[in-house]
Design brief:
543 residues; alpha+beta; five-stranded mixed sheet; 18 helices; globular; disordered C terminus
């Protein structure tokens, strides 16, 4: 197994550019002409609907299929002149394609593509590229799928049976669905999901030891037995994926009712105090062991019902509770995928690969946390229960708490692990520094400050500037990364150090000095990102 974790002298190979690097494509006139027509269509659509009253969104379907409707010519002559220019622009290009890969790299890429004995995956975290021998990878994945508690084999007709149940649910309980929503849920070409795993190289001691021993950015490790994999189910067109999308839109507003809920690490900063009263308090993080895989279906359904009954005003009145629960059961009990020519069905846990999974997991842990707050009144006192409700913060399975000195961490962990036998926690604690998501929380006396946190295996392998991506995407990367540093790192000296490191990292990815400097200066002038200004990720699907 080979990984490209930087730890020494730099070498230049095709894979070092990262799996997101896009080679320059050969000229394709048909595809280019199709793209131009679609772009012109979108220009007319934007002009046609930009003045529509957005206050009537409640009368629109939450989801619907693409119509393919072509709007008529606009009255905006400037727009029509631009469209006409685009359509008439000559597609002939006599200049040879200027590749962003050398001939050697292109040949190496072709060799890798044809090499059936090699599996190439991005590491679960850190961006490293991992090359594994096919046999090793297959054995690791099958060791996951052969666990009878979580998976069992099924047949290729499972999706067809699920489709019949889906139609039955819509017929019996879908009275509130609009015509467009029913069409979206049933009228599409579905494909079976596929199963794969991402190597968690940051959790392998063998790889960590090799990282310290081998003075090269390319580690060579022979099939490490202690390398775990994150199971992933990829199915953007699975039979339940569209139903999952609709349920996510319906249920996601409930997440904001969960006291511990945070959207991401930047949202976490809103709740982190700059000063604490007790300088002996401990910084503690808790992690749920394999959360998605270990949520029993009965617990998950009970949690969703709890939140729907507690916050009924958050649920669109068009949708019956029976429709929501029946649909959720269908998704949970019929998550089918294939690997190595065999079909499997997931027996336990959140349905992997479905859009609803993060919302579902958030509501389940939120339900258990309500029990925790009540138990803390008896175990300790009402004051600590209130403190916990205000200061226990969680992003999916990662939890953070500044724990008062009088609370024993092991005792608190036991209380967490007694909430449900299938949901178990581990913890780390420190009196001075603790990593949470991508933030390093630092405590000095009564003061709290923050820094960036990166795992030792993080490659900082940002998108190479030579990649054939849209220019605006690459231009925005220095600004976005610098804005993140300015938002997280408040100490000016430390902030300057991180920005200097960012410059070096981006230069390694071939970003021009002028572009890097402009992005950093622009980020400094705008200041920290305000979470209140960021858009909610909940959106209607109305393409």
């Amino acid at each position: 197994m080979l990984t490209n974790i930087p730890c020494g002298k730099r070498k230049n190979t095709t894979l070092r550019k990262g799996l997101k690097f896009t080679p320059t494509p050969n000229e394709n006139k048909i595809e280019l002409n199709t793209d131009i027509k679609e772009f012109c269509r979108k220009l007319r659509l934007s002009e046609r609907f930009h003045d529509d009253n957005q206050e009537n969104n409640d009368e629109l379907p939450l989801v619907r299929n693409k119509t393919g409707w072509n709007p008529p010519k606009s009255n905006d002559t400037a727009l029509e002149d631009a469209i006409q220019f685009l359509k008439e622009y000559p597609l002939e290009n006599n200049c040879p394609v200027k590749h962003n890969l050398s001939r050697n790299d292109r040949e190496a890429l072709k060799t890798l593509k044809d090499k059936n004995t090699l599996i190439i995956k991005e590491a679960d975290k850190g961006g490293a590229v991992v090359c594994m021998n096919n046999t090793f990878y297959k054995e690791k994945i099958l060791s996951i799928l052969n666990d009878p508690i979580y998976y069992e084999e099924t047949d290729e007709g499972a999706d067809l049976r699920t489709k019949h149940v889906l139609h039955d649910i819509i017929r019996k309980y879908g009275d509130g669905l609009m015509k467009e929503e029913s069409d979206y849920l049933t009228n599409f070409e579905h494909t079976t999901s596929y199963f794969y795993g991402l190597p968690k190289i940051h959790k392998s001691k063998t790889i960590a030891d090799s990282l310290n021993e081998q003075q090269s950015e390319y580690l060579k490790v022979c099939d490490p037995n202690d390398l775990p994999f994150r199971p992933i189910c990829g199915g953007p067109n699975s039979i339940t994926q569209r139903l999952s999308r609709l349920l996510d839109i319906i249920l996601k507003p409930l997440c904001k009712c969960v006291p511990s809920f945070i959207r991401d690490d930047l949202d976490f900063l809103k709740y982190l105090p700059e000063h604490i009263e007790d300088h002996e308090s401990k910084l503690v993080t808790f992690d749920v062991i394999n959360l998605y895989s270990n949520i029993p279906h009965d617990l998950g359904l009970k949690a969703v019902i709890f939140w729907m009954e507690k916050m009924p005003e958050k649920i669109d009145k068009r949708f019956q509770h029976n429709f929501i629960i029946k649909s959720l059961k269908l998704i949970l009990y019929n998550n089918v995928f294939y690997f190595d020519g065999k079909y499997y069905i997931q027996k336990k846990g959140a349905a992997m690969g479905t859009i609803i999974a993060p919302t579902y997991a958030t509501l389940v842990l939120g339900y258990l946390e309500e029990t925790l707050y009540e138990r803390m009144k008896t175990k300790y006192n009402n004051e600590f229960s209130i403190y916990l409700r205000l200061n226990w913060k969680r992003f999916l399975d990662d939890c953070f708490l500044i724990l008062p000195k009088e609370i024993d961490t092991s005792d608190f962990l036991n209380e967490l692990n007694n909430l449900h036998q299938s949901i178990q926690f581990t913890y780390n604690e420190s009196e001075s520094a603790m990593a949470f998501l991508d933030i390093l929380v630092l405590k000095s006396g009564n003061n709290i400050c923050t820094d960036l946190y990166c795992k030792p295996t993080d490659t900082h392998n940002y998108l190479d500037f030579r990649s054939c991506h849209p220019k605006h995407t690459k231009v925005n990367i220095p600004f976005n990364l610098a804005s993140r540093i300015i938002t997280i790192v408040k100490n000016k000296d430390l902030q300057e150090k991180r920005l200097t490191e960012l410059k070096l990292q981006l230069k390694q990815q071939n970003y021009p000095d002028v572009l890097i400097q402009h992005g950093i200066e622009q980020a400094i002038s705008k200041g920290p990102i305000k979470t209140t200004d960021r858009k909610d990720t909940r959106a209607r699907v109305t393409k």
